[in-house]
């Protein structure tokens, strides 16, 4: 068996439950470039996923710290969907994907990495992007850094 070491992920997997506070509540208090916030709306913001499945993987996050979609105020839910539509346009323009994944994992049992704060994932997908490296090696190969992705998406959000 071969091993691909990813020691930089240890900080993520070991701190998810132990970190005081909430990464999504803390992010808007920081500089957009530092935390990779692509866009700030009235009720929600768009942020790059720090551990993306593909380049362009963003999350639309309400400012309100809520763990269930049903408790999200209507205005925030409407803005979340409007931003999802806008992100689809940005991703199609920038990355020319074959498809788009859009979804939420609500609760730890549903696969939420950050179960205490709901968020919508929007990410581009390509036919056969789940190749042997990601399926067998459980490793993602990303052709650009988060800083490059952030700059491209930030500019595109300002144009659309």
Shape: globular
Fraction of residues in H or I helices: 25-40%
Share of β-strand residues: 15-25%
CATH H-level homologous superfamily name = HIT-like
Which regions are unreliable across 5 or more consecutive residues at pLDDT < 50?
131-137
How many domains, in number, for the residues? 1
CATH architecture: 2-Layer Sandwich
What is the CATH topology? HIT family, subunit A
For the record, the CATH class is Alpha Beta
* Element string (H = helix, E = strand): HHHEEEHEEHH
Distance between the termini: 47 Å
Number-wise, the strands total 5
Give an overview in words:
With 160 residues, the protein is an alpha+beta fold. It has one domain (20-159): HIT family, subunit A (2-Layer Sandwich), CATH 3.30.428.10. Helix content is 34%, strand content 16%. The chain has six helices and five strands, in the order αααβββαββαα. The chain has helices at residues 10-15, 23-26, 32-35, 74-95, 132-135, 146-159; strands at residues 37-40, 44-48, 58-62, 99-103, 120-125. The protein has a five-stranded antiparallel sheet with strand order 1-2-3-5-4. β1 and β2 (44-48) form a beta hairpin. The longest helix has 22 residues, at 74-95. It is globular. Mean pLDDT is 85; it is low at 131-137.
């Amino acid at each position: 068996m071969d091993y691909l070491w990813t020691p930089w992920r240890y900080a993520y997997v070991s701190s998810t439950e132990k970190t005081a506070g909430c990464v999504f509540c803390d992010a808007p208090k920081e500089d957009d470039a530092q935390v990779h916030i692509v866009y700030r709306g009235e009720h929600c913001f768009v942020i790059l996923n720090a551990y993306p499945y593909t380049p362009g993987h963003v999350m639309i996050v309400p400012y309100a710290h809520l763990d269930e979609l049903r408790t999200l105020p209507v205005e925030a839910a409407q803005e979340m969907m409007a931003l999802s539509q806008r992100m689809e346009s940005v991703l199609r323009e920038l990355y020319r994907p074959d498809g788009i994944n859009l979804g939420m994992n609500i609760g730890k049992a549903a696969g939420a990495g950050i179960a205490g704060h709901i968020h919508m994932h929007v990410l581009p997908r390509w036919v056969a992007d789940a190749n042997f490296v990601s399926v067998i090696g459980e490793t993602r190969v990303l052709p650009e850094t988060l800083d490059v992705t952030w700059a491209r998406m930030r500019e595109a959000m300002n144009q659309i």
